[in-house]
């Protein structure tokens, strides 16, 4: 059985991500692990030594009660067939996720985002950006208004750089097979890159993914994000796969520009994956 990990801080965006993950889990017969990581609140008390504001056992008991309430609520609202385990840990979200992911080998880690300006207001503040950069397992970023629906069209944003060494072929194939979806590969050329090298790399990608019979789209656009947005809307993409270490798409797709609304349509979840090892 597949495992989906859902970190939560009990905020509305994390509740929405949990709803999305629960519906996905039912669709693919996966179990959920609901994880809450907290830090001990401290007070300086006019001294140089931080002092805990309450007993850690009392705080853990409070957090455990809250997460169990979320579990019960989710089962009641979704289905009794939903399998949910709960974990409460004190420490760093990234460290705890690394440990848990290494043990459980999750199908995905599902997290929420506020949307506009989420780089400064959410990713950095809540450690989500650190998770995206440091966790090697797939991280699915769910926009605030997104709800799970049948994933029929999966997009893969590819820059055609070092295809053989970096494309997460096995993961892409797993997701396409799991949802019986079609794959649509997109390359946006924003700087008139070397045409010969792009052609060579595209042939390599075609070879790696040929059994999936993907559709390929090549867009000439000065703005990568705008090109992706147009592509996603025109092709009714249900989920977009990106590789965060190769470009800054995750840090720009949900940003507001000075003259535009959100560059990327807020309904589309983004699956952040790392290069093939």
Describe this structure in words.
- The protein has 277 residues and is α/β, with parallel strands linked by helices.
- The chain folds into 2 domains: 2-142, Rossmann fold; 153-272, HUPs (Rossmann fold), CATH 3.40.50.
- 40% of the residues lie in helices and 22% in strands.
- It contains 10 helices and 12 strands.
- The strands form 2 sheets. It has a 10-stranded mixed β-sheet, with helices on both faces. The protein has a two-stranded antiparallel sheet with strand order 3-4.
- Helix 8 (195-209) links the parallel strand 9 and strand 10.
- Mean pLDDT is 79; it is low at 115-126 and 254-266.
Which features would summarize this protein structure in a list?
22% strand; ten-stranded mixed sheet; 2 domains; Rossmann fold; alpha/beta; 277 residues; elongated; two-stranded antiparallel ribbon
How helix-rich are the residues, as a percent range? 40-55%
Number of strands: 12
CATH topology of the largest domain: Rossmann fold
Strand order of the largest sheet: 5-2-1-6-7-12-11-8-9-10
In short:
By secondary structure, the protein is of the alpha/beta class. 40% of the residues lie in helices and 22% in strands.
Write the layout of secondary structure elements.
Blueprint: E1 2-7, H1 12-28, E2 30-38, E3 42-43, E4 51-52, H2 56-77, E5 84-90, H3 93-104, E6 108-112, H4 118-126, H5 128-134, E7 139-142, E8 153-157, H6 163-166, H7 169-179, E9 182-189, H8 195-209, E10 215-220, H9 224-234, E11 239-242, H10 249-252, E12 270-272
Parallel strand pairs: 1-2, 1-6, 2-5, 6-7, 8-9, 8-11, 9-10, 11-12
Antiparallel strand pairs: 3-4, 7-12
